[in-house]
Every structure is written in C-alpha cells, then in structure tokens.
Give the backbone structure.
Amino acid sequence: MQELRIYVETSVWSHYYADDAPDAKAKTREFLRQCREAGPAVELYVSQVVLDELGEAAEDLADRLLHLVSRHGALLLPAREEVLDLAEAYAAHGAIPRRKLADRTHAAIATVNQVNVLVSWNYRDFVNVPQRKKIQGVNVLLGYHNPIEIVTPPEVFGNEVQSETD
Amino acid sequence: MKCSQRQIEVWQAREKLDKRLLKMTRKEMIDYLNGVVPRLEKKLGRKLDLKTARLQAREPSNV
C-alpha cells in the first residue's frame, strides 16, 4: 500500500468516546484500528488546533482524548507563513467563512504539509461535495495541485466495521 | 442526521478557539501553531508525548 498521510480532525478523535453515537464510535474505532494495523504505511497527523479543541472537553475526557492521540503516534504538523496565506485565501474566495479560522487552519495546515487525506465526521463544514470543491478550488488556485481527500473514517480504507472493545 | 453530543461540543470548542485565534497577529498565530501545547500540559498536569512532523511543506506552484 502506498503511504497514506492522514490528518485526523478533532471530530474523529472525539467520536472514539461518543456513547450517544454508537455507529460513528464503532467506525472511528475501526478506522484507528486499521491505521494501527497498517503500521508505517499510514501516518497520522494533528495540529495544535486539534489538540486545543480536544483539550476543551471536560477534564477527564480531555485527558483520555489527548492520550488517545499520543497513543496512536500522531505527529504534530508544523506551520509557516504559507499556512496563514492559504487560510486567508479560503476566506477571501468564500470557501470557508472568515470567522471560522480554526476550520480554515485545519484545511490549510493539512494541505501545505502535503497530507493526502483529511478525515472528519464534520459533514456540515468539511465532508460534503460543495465544501470539498471549494477547498480544492482554492488549493489549485494557490498552486497546491495535489488533491487532498476530505472523507469520513470508513471511507479511508473502505472495509466493513469489525467490533473492537477498548 | 442527528449530531452527537461530542460533535456539538467540538463545535463549541471551535467557536471558543476561533475567538482566540482571530485576535492573534500572524506571528502569534505561527508561534501558536508551532507551540508545544504548554496551556494543555498545564491543564492536564503532565507532559504530552507528541512529536512534531518533519514533513517538507509544499511550496505552491503557480503554473
């Protein structure tokens, strides 16, 4: 399998412990299990924004979520000026509202750092056809021609969910 | 589709973070994104065992 670089957005980590969303929880756990099984063929990434959003959960949950991120060996993506330029371009071209700087930063830091896949459960802001087109359009406009796939966890590997207790 | 409580909490956390980020200068934003999560470590009372990726950031190619 070709190496996959996956940016795991906050909503995915969060659903690992989402008891009120058993389907998304099971699919999240299956996705992370598949990532672990894939070994070096899959690299997981987060940003400071992901960590901060997870850190806003209630103390015990925040601790478990951040431990989950480190347990999966997710690497923190670095940022430089290009990330801010691209985040600004998303607002300037109407792809992501200006007030949603965290969303703009998720997409920009993943794109600039050559991530292949942005995985999210956030259908409202990321995982929908118009939004994918808008983000991809701005990326191409600014010279980032390699597409970044924006998908939900089960779409990454496309396999059936297996049960996992953790 | 009904949203989970966790998704709602993520959106609330994001709105709170947006307010903080929108007040930052570019330099503050870069420093923040490249930081070593001291605020979180203080909250958790322990070090976060995370490494920074060494990817070569992609330069835009305006062709």
Remarks:
- The mean pLDDT of chain A is 92.
